[in-house]
Description:
2 domains, alpha/beta, single chain, 12 strands, Arc Repressor Mutant, subunit A, globular, Rossmann fold, 8 helices
Amino acid sequence: MTTPDLPDHIAIVDDDREIRELLATYLRKHGFKVSLAADGRQLHALLERDAIDLVVLDLMMPGEDGLAVCRTLRAGRHQGLPILMLTARDEEADRILGLEMGADDYLTKPFAARELMARIRSVLRRTRMLPPNLRVSEPASVIRFGDWRLDTTARHLLDAGGTMVALSGAEYRLLRVLLDHPQRVLNRDQLLNLTQGRGVDLFDRSIDLLVSRLRQRLGDGAREPRYIKTVRNEGYVFCAAVEPAP
């Protein structure tokens, strides 16, 4: 991550040269440092030589598409790098897959450049710090629930044997919210606002997808959940006891 004295460094990955350059011009005008890549190969080369704070990743690209690039980043040493995915308006299934692959947020085309900038700033802000309403009250840096421990300093989820389970940034933020509000029903709008800083639109399924991914990480079944219970027509509740680890 950059220091306060340096601009945030954004990588724009899109096979359309005109779109890349238009977005770069706008973001540079508003204080960002921008690097451009036409495909996944150029992005990987860029990550090897520069410190990138966020990737704006187009989903539809020839060869290695955005989903494949996102999957590769989440499986490698750049797994914590924030990703904002750009999708076409009629590609709901691909947007869902992008979130499942670990994208932090998405923006549908066509979009206004100022909306992209607002989304970038929102993702960067919530990636770097938890707002006050997400801070847990326990002084301990490790929280225990069931067979799991969450190290809130290193942001590591540890199973009963001490093995680390990787979490994307969005999964970590959702787990923190749930652990800070156990036994309390939180609706989708509350969860989306707390984890992504925006409200729900009619067709937004990102919270449901995040819950599904987090359940998979925890080995939690939707029918007989130990941790995250669905409350019909209301939202979700974290039903396990939460306590600071000794």
